Amino acid sequence: MDQARSAMSQIFNNEPHSYTRFNLPDNMEVDTSQVEMIQSSDMNEEVGENGDEGHLSHKSNRQPHVAQNFECTTKSLCFMAATIVFTFVIGYLTGYLVHKNKDLNCSCAPSEDDITHKTGAVPFMDWDDVRKLLENNWALFSCLHFSNHRAGSPGDEDLGNKVITKFKEYGMKTWTDEYFVKVQDPPASGYNRIVFKNGSEEHPTGFLSYSASGTARGAVLYAHYGQEDDFKQLKNMNINMNNRVMLVRAGRISFAEKVANAAKVNASAVLIYPDPADYPIGNDTSLFGHVHMGSGDPYTPGFPSFNHTQFPPVQSSGLPHILAQTITTGMGTKILRQLGGRTQPNSWEGINRLGDESDVITVEVNNVLTEKRINNVFGVIKGFVDADRYVVIGAQRDAWGPGFAASSVGTSVLVELARSISDMVENDGFKPRRSMVFASWSAGEYGSVGATEWLEGYLSSLSMKAVAYINLDGIVTGQNGFKVAASPLLHSLVQNALKEVNYDKDKSLLSQFGKNNWESAILEPLRMDSAAYPFLAFSGIPSVAFRFHSGSSDYPHFGTNLDTRENLNSVTASQVPQLAVRAGQFAGHIALRLVHDHLLQMDLKKYNQLIRSHVVQINGKVKAVQRLQPQLLPKTLTGQWLVMASGSYNRVSSILTADIQNSDLENVEMCRMINDRIMTVERNFLSPYVSPIDSPFRHILLGSGPHTLKALTNHLDALKSASPEANAELFRNKLAQATWTIQACANSLAGDIWSLDNEF
């Protein structure tokens, strides 16, 4: 061994004895963790001082490290060869194990090669293949239906158990969430009643949950549909509305909005009837609904109804303080025929009198507050890359009566969509990047209670991880038209789905219903009584709802006991199964696109136009108020800050759009970072300056309340007319808050702190 050391010394250097240590990784399976090699330059110890002409020759300009003339015996050459081999083996093993240890400790996101190794040979299909699989995997429509499944009833629970059993059959992970919610039901003993003039007492069987209780007496005033514009027209006619009982037609806006509008003009009660021009349902059909100007359990606003005993008593600001009651068509038309007073405005349908002070009516509401146990049912198909990011697809399970169009069709499509996509994953090799959560909600008829309680229970995580929500309630109510209500972020995705989903063999949904101008023909505002609304306006999750419909009027049997299979077939020419399949494919197309693509297909620039239109209106009205009411708004107040915030969002969204176009789709970590930035947009349009208890729908562009840009515009109108309700100081505060909400959204979208675009 001494001769070997001497030979290695001659090869590397002529220095004195030294030690070179190789520190091996801890996981090397050897007896010792160090190897020591002694390097020696004492050539005389092993070889003679004089050698013959046999030597190692280096054809280089550099001076060699070993003497070129020395005696090299056969024995020394063997030692040299053995030492070189031994050193090479040790070095190779050391490098291999160090490299392996680094790989094991790497904290980077998995590459798609890793995912391929773990999940199969073809982890991600082309989009065209995915689309064809969905179309081919869709079986004939079969309906899950119970005749009585009101929220919290045995029928509702049985239907929920049937849904979760189906999910388990498809191999999905399932779970349920249980809540104890407070709702209003009609009196178990007794009744609600109305008495018009000196006529007979009427006992309507329909009711409106969350109405105030008690008795109101006042003169009837006909107010058309009870919209804000309707009450403005009455005000312009100088009609006294204080303590009047408003008689309004059902339709166009929700029951809750009608009652809230009436309360603003100091009405004492509201009677809502189905006019035969809108609701051809007979004279004696009762209407059911709710009047909570919000969603979820109004007695636990902002937090979930897991257990009422843990929370102090509190009520939602959206609960009305006036009476509200539905009456039948026969009751409503009977009252209308007897009204006196002035003729209604020419712009209103029909020829009716508005009523005068002598048209007195008594309204008594005796609804009772009860607690119900409800369950939400869930199943999940987990993603293969970003499993903690998910698309939620949901449908209401309960109904006032048979609820065939309201809930049965949507629940059946939900289950069939879960089956189809599970089959694609299990048998066809489809591997979604992100997860898909299928949800069956209860207590939807009381104001999206089940869905909202879930949002309130998991808001902090859902707002960051839920990619989008797709609503399946009321998706088939006719056959002559197709309407979509969605977040602007999803408009481009909706348009692509319309192009690629067939209505029949020769036409797509787009060519059938929106071939000229699809946005004006198909898009509509998201209604407050849709379960998609709290996802968007309360939680900041991009949402979409859609429906096949017949004409401009609503489906007349919603909220009645006539919502049956037979009546839905009558308005669809018995095409319910075919339309349900098309609706399911449309929803599935949107969901699959959101879980398939590397980058979320959301158009950040769609909000630019909406923001800009509000900014232009506000700036123009500010100048008008300063001209007409200079004492209210000083000249120093301008809309420049709002303009600059709008410009910041425009610039940042354009930059991120360019980044998306130039991104490396194979870089999983980069795609995840970009997607997370995209997902902040909707969430950051929620005003941080209002309480979810006072204003649950905090979205400044699509929400409801004094913090919205629409409310700012209305406030300026009030200032312009010097209305006593106007408050200049409050307006300035709300304007500053809305401005910074937009700027903060732009800041978040920019990503890094050094990329912020603040010009204030």
Automatic annotation (TrEMBL):
Q: Which Gene3D superfamilies match?
A: 3.50.30.30, Transferrin receptor-like, dimerisation domain, Zn peptidases
Q: Where is this region: Disordered?
A: 43-62
Output the PTM entry: Stearoylated.
Q: Which UniProt keywords apply?
A: Cell membrane, Disulfide bond, Endocytosis, Glycoprotein, Lipoprotein, Membrane, Palmitate, Phosphoprotein, Receptor, Signal-anchor, Transmembrane, Transmembrane helix
**Localisation:** Cell membrane; Melanosome
User: CDD domains attached here?
Assistant: M28_TfR, PA_TfR
Primary place of residence?
A: membrane
| GO BP annotations listed | intracellular iron ion homeostasis; receptor internalization; transferrin transport
Domain Transferrin receptor-like dimerisation, by residue range, is 667-749
Q: What does this protein do?
A: Cellular uptake of iron occurs via receptor-mediated endocytosis of ligand-occupied transferrin receptor into specialized endosomes. Endosomal acidification leads to iron release. The apotransferrin-receptor complex is then recycled to the cell surface with a return to neutral pH and the concomitant loss of affinity of apotransferrin for its receptor. Transferrin receptor is necessary for development of erythrocytes and the nervous system. Acts as a lipid sensor that regulates mitochondrial fusion by regulating activation of the JNK pathway.
Q: Which family does it belong to?
A: Belongs to the peptidase M28 family. M28B subfamily.
- What is the name listed in the Swiss-Prot or TrEMBL entry for this protein? Transferrin receptor protein 1
